[in-house]
Amino acid sequence: MSLYRNSAWFLKGLTEFTRNGFLTASKRFVEKDLDVSVAGRSFMITGANSGIGKAAAMAIAKKGGTVHMVCRNKDKAEEARADIVKESGNKEIYVHILDLSETKKVWEFAEAFKRKYKTLNVLINNAGSIMSQRDVNAEGLEKSFAVNVLSIYILTKSLVPLLEKSPDPRVIIVSSGGMLVQKLRIGNLQSERGRYDGTMVYAQHKRQQIVMTEQFAKTHTNIHFSVMHPGWVDTPAVANAMPDFHRSMKESLRTPDQGADTVVWLAVSEVSITNPSGRFYQDRRVVSTHLPLAWTHSSPLEEQKFMSLLEELAKKFQSH
Asked: Which InterPro entries does the annotation name (predicted)?
């Protein structure tokens, strides 16, 4: 079943995930939540050269934060950096080139970052990938799984020691409401069985991100973890991966700034960390990770097994 044929999810989306949904929700936002300076704090943002990632980087740069942009394309990253420096007046913006689908390189990057930098206050796992057909990386892993799931696991696990010794550490994962139509499935992580439907594989990865966040929060109690749905946002990624959806919904899609609002709120506000770690957010509010009467719940045993599988895969490609 295609993601957009799930009527309960789609109706919820039409009311909440659109630009109008954001405008309605924003009426309850507290202005002073974001009236903060984050000078002296450092933020790593993956996929920071366009869309939600760039909007978040810009907002944080304007508040004085040091921003580490982790991007795949050097030219696009340098162009985005120049825009951010020019508009924010903040020169503490650094570009790191990394293809998150290259699993060994994710380990190498994280380990090198720890050696070079003494502090990291906030990790924002924003980069994502929707594939139209199944493809594998050099390590033989399905590429979108490598980007959407395993790279987040590796980057977060590797950077935990650096985060833990930095004041007020936070980890944020940018997920998607698409996960509401998916139950955690651990028997086909590489999407080898059945027909490959890129949007449903993506939605499954987004469910896996929810479970990962909840499990990380239990294990690493000194760090505040959160995962969020940005709504339906007009980004290059959506236009490329879902052209029909983008075309039909274009007038209703949120701007990248609106999509990034909760990311920034989770990253910089003092009030956001008064909520328990491991929660799922939409428009600055904790929301359920399941639709009403949903069949999408998984058992603690399945969730622990999933984390064990990620650990095994991650270790397999770790540089020694």
From this structure: NAD(P)-bd_dom_sf, SDR_fam, SDR_member_12
